[in-house]
Amino acid sequence: MDFKEIYKQKLTTPEEAVKLVQDGWRVTWPVAVGQPPVLINALARRKDEFTHLEVLTVVDVYPTELLNLTKDDPIKPDYCYCIIGRRGVQEGRFTYTPARLSQIPWYIDMGRPYQCVMMQVSPMDEFGFFSMGLSCDYGFPVAKKAEKIIVQVNENMPRTFGRNFWHVSEVDAIVEANTPLTALPVLPPNENEKLIGNYIAELVEDGSTLQLGIGSIPSAVALALENKKDLGIHTEMFPDALKILWEKGAITNRKKTYNPDIAVASFALGSEDLYKWLNNNPMVHFYTVDQILDPYILAKNDKMICINSALEIDLTGQVNSESIGHRQYTHTGGQQDLIMGAFMSKGGKGIIALESTVETKNGRKSKIVPHLEYGSFISTGRNDIQYVVTEYGIADLKIWSVRERVKRLIAIAHPDYRDELKFEAEKAGFI
Q1: Structural domains of the chain sorted by starting position, each given as residue range(s) with its CATH number in brackets
Q2: Catalytic positions, please?
């Protein structure tokens, strides 16, 4: 089989490639950097050719022409985990699907199939395979059942390992476009976040397996954990913080009780240095979200430490990580699965980490509140919450009553709000 000849036969323009998409279909693409902006733009420009077309995008990091669509256009974007498209969701131009990221692959067999998957891949190797690079997530299993697969080959996309390869014989159209990959700066932690990192470090034993997200709190955690030994990685997203820990020698993956000796992730998002480091790195493997985020698989890692954040948490332990009132702000990703998987792990810990206050246009407010803001969505329920960490300490909530939880959460709230929180707790009959 002449792989290069097959490649040549399927090579086309973005405009021709997206003509494979039929009216009435559902189309999707992988998470974040794995999204093919050239193909997405070409599809958006076909809007007048459709009567109805649904597109699902998760963690949008490219400002594509989808953002210009109106509520009345026949292409209907579903921004499940909106970033750039957040305003469109809040305005009602786009819609939003509440979901555990791990369960999106199941939707195909539950009545919501996707007939086309478009993805950004690394150049074909000598055996005829493309790597999905920085994004495997739900895109891989959904594409396995799709009618059409279209790839944007990008020389900037790292070649990575795991269950994330496509053979040239499996794809239907190939487009070449070396789009710059969206990269994010490494955010230095502030003093409060450094304190949070230090408290989290108290909960992490040598030999633990880590899940970290993106942002300055994970950076603070990385700084605080650099003297730990034989840490492992099993994470939804691979951020710069884990690369930093690896370079410090804290991560070896040797003590992992599941997938030992390698780090596993579903997608990566971070700096250009991170992307270069991941290229052809045999120690990092990418697998699908239904595997990475399965609580039972997570729990196979002893001492599984899952660290997530929140916008606010109420005094009973209800966590809002995704909305400001009723306005969708972000998505929970795998938070529920991660919290549960960590709890089920032998010696595991599920942690919600957040600064005690936030500055808003109306001034500073406490993130620990008597009741969630009206209309807020509950991301992690109070039945599942385990540890909450702020710059003022650690609150272990899992097995405790509401009365005890209130006391512990007030103790780690900002001192300026503790009297008010106590007053509201007494008023509500919590204490």
Answers
A1: 3-176 (3.40.1080.10), 191-427 (3.40.1080.20)
A2: 236
